[in-house]
Design goal:
Helix content: over 70%
Shape: elongated
Number of helices: 1
Largest sheet: none
Structural class: mainly alpha
Order of helices and strands: H
Length: 56
């Protein structure tokens, strides 16, 4: 029958999800938490310079 759909097996794909989370998402989150404060500080300094330069 042409209308019959195959059942797709997800056996083993849960372990790939764990590898993706542990190998990609967690290191990216750690990097963002590590570089985030420096990025915010630099953005704040840049805004301060852009606001104050006409008065110097």
């Amino acid at each position: 029958m042409a209308n019959r759909r195959k059942k797709h097996s997800r056996a083993g794909l849960a372990s790939l999800d764990y590898v993706l989370i542990l190998g990609v998402v967690l290191p990216m989150a750690a990097f963002v938490l590590w570089i985030g404060p420096r990025t915010m500080r630099l953005a704040y300094e840049m805004v301060c310079v852009l606001v104050s330069w006409p008065f110097m």
